[in-house]
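Problem 3 from the worked examples.
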Amino acid sequence: MPLVVTLTGSPSPSSRTLALAQQAGRRLAADGFDVETIDVRALPAQDLLHARLDAPALQTALATVERADGVIVATPVYKAAYTGILKAFLDLLPQLGLTGKTVLPLATGGTVAHVLAIDYGLRPVLQSLGARHVLQGLFILDKQLTRTDAGGLDIDADVRARLDALLLEFARALRP
């Protein structure tokens, strides 16, 4: 079965963006996909910021992306752009590190003023890395995502429907 990697770039340990990516990953796993998560925040900061490509954690993460058939890139939007830690990781990928891969960008943010961050900030980077197909992304307002007491995530019904449709499209693009 195809391998999907959820790549998350939130600096927050209680990130709704990470929970969103994990929920998307669980949905795909239930559909039979192999799913692995790379939480960039959990990588050693010194290795990431100093581009220590020989560091074991970075080697493992980069190899995981290389093996992936599809990648879900999930990031909060701050100051109209995806996060710096996500950018630091994407900078470590080889020039064509997403060649042949289908990519689904997801972004969360506090205001609709950031809705174009996917198309004007993230998409060009993903395309320059050689992604075969970058699906139309999904921007979700923070207020449409609520953390549950059990650590889960409640997603607004309209957003859930749009996310489900995108995950279905993503899955179809990955099936042989």
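Problem 4, a separate protein:
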Amino acid sequence: MIIHVTRHGQVDQATDHPVGDPYLSEVGREQARLLGVRLEALGFSGSIHSSPYFRTVETAQIVAEVVDVDVIPAAEVREYVIREGQVDGFRGATAEDLSDRYSRVGGKVELDYPWWTSEIETHEDIEARVAPLIDTVVAGKKDVLLVGHGASVDGVHRTILKKHAPEHLDHGRNGWNCVLSSFRFEPFEVINLLVTDHLPDDLVTSNAKSREEFLRESR
């Protein structure tokens, strides 16, 4: 079985979205569509487990429409909290909200509410919450796509690579929008690691910043 991992598409910078929960931009939606096309070419036919934020479920919905699969909200790959007050005013979608808004999310989804935390999280905390999900999907022996955020996607990478391929831990951690990593299990193989070749150069972004802007400011 194969675990594919991606970060959500670029978000809309407008202010008319829910507090702390923006929707995708037009660029983000195209990034998601192109990711779906790549996964379709790879023969992906498993389920998609997505963070319950709108930007991640919207990404998952667009991919799911291309490959014709279902989306399962998964709080384990949610955004992380790095400062006090970060989630003030945040309400978060319920399972019913998500199934009403996104057709690929089933009507009988289990999602504890609230599914987020207000506690500041470390990288170790993120790894601890994503690890059980990884174990569960591996045990299921069916291909999956995990759709998360920069930090949770990085946590999935670290959790998998620490156990199976520590030589790849220094992988750069550039969490571009709709980047793709793919890991085969039993036997383990790194198939893709943070690749963006399914995206045109002008669609490689880290949210509002282009790849060139992001790398220039990171020097």
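Solution to problem 4. The chain has a mean pLDDT of 94. Residues 123-140 form the longest helix (18 residues).
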